[in-house]
Amino acid sequence: MRKKIYVLCVAALIGAAVASSASFTGSGKQPTSLVTTASLRSGSAVSAMKIFRSPSEVVTANLPSVLPARVQHALSDLPSPAQGAAIESKLRLVSLRSSADLYLFPTDQGSVCFVTSDRAGAASCVDQFDKNTPVGWILYRDAAQPATVVGVVPDNVASVDVTFGTEVVHATISSGAFIATSATTQSDEPVTVDVSYVDGSSVSQNAPPMPATPGR
Amino acid sequence: MCIESQLGAAAGGKDVDPCPPPQSAASTGVDAPGRLLGRRASRLVSALTSWRVILIASALLFIIPPIAAYGWTRYRYLSDGFDFPNEVGWTSGWLQREYNSAYHQTTEGWEVRYYNTSDQITANAFSWSSPTSLGATTGDRRAWCSFETLTGAWQSGAANCDTTVP
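Structure tokens for the assembled complex are given below, as produced in the milestone run.
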């Protein structure tokens, strides 16, 4: 009888251990990695952002002891297989505003991924910065907040201006991340992201009109 | 039932009464139905502690916690290709979602949306970079994704859209 109870306890403990691991890594589709950036492809996004070179070079917010579920899911599931596995040890938290800070992390293939801390949990990844991708950004809306553009910038970007319809918002840039929120836009209007480099050049990207929420 | 030979052997050949008179209910404190229940309970305990049951219980204890911890699985609702504007992807039903992500080429802009059961958009996101992704919903939602064109031109390409199901 004692042996049987022992078998039951061992099974329960192993199951609990697997469950604990699973709850931290989400679906566990892709293993995390501690690979250094030495093997990254040239011109990768991570090499253009000093925030990942050394923690002492930039000031970032302290990571919470328990990461939000969305961030855990992003670490395990967000990058595509081609973009590689998240490097959890280089996860950064940049304070942009109280309602939407930005988590940033590189992958072992040199991509940089970002995810907002707000309810929308908008997220994306950038493989490399170039003229077609001057900054990595995502435009999002939900019923609780107006249109917002958030993303990551390489070190050679001086400023980002976002135009929501006719409203121009000068983005707040901090530690390689930026955010611009419309004060008034709830309507179906196009959005333009204008990026200015430190050398004086500039480039623009557009987003098509998206329906405001709620409604169709 | 009393079997004399067995009782005699069990007693080591000592001179004992092989078939003592049955004790009355008053002397044992247990009535006849109570003894029956006691035997059944004993058999039940014996059955529950058999190795077969122990192994099944162990397997369940091993499997259930991870399932409970995950709570959801990844589900691909648009796979491999699209032919805009003929094809956009959406889920057939409304469920709690952990995320909704469109994986695409970075030369294409993609939008993801959530719809509530009234078919109203509750959140949407657009990006040129891949993936274009939204986080968890606060209720049951239909996940939706589509290529977005700035020019209205038709276009085909490769993309996948993933969400979660409980």
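The radius of gyration of chain A is 20 Å. Residues 20-39 of chain A have pLDDT under 50 and may be disordered. Further analysis is deferred to the final report.
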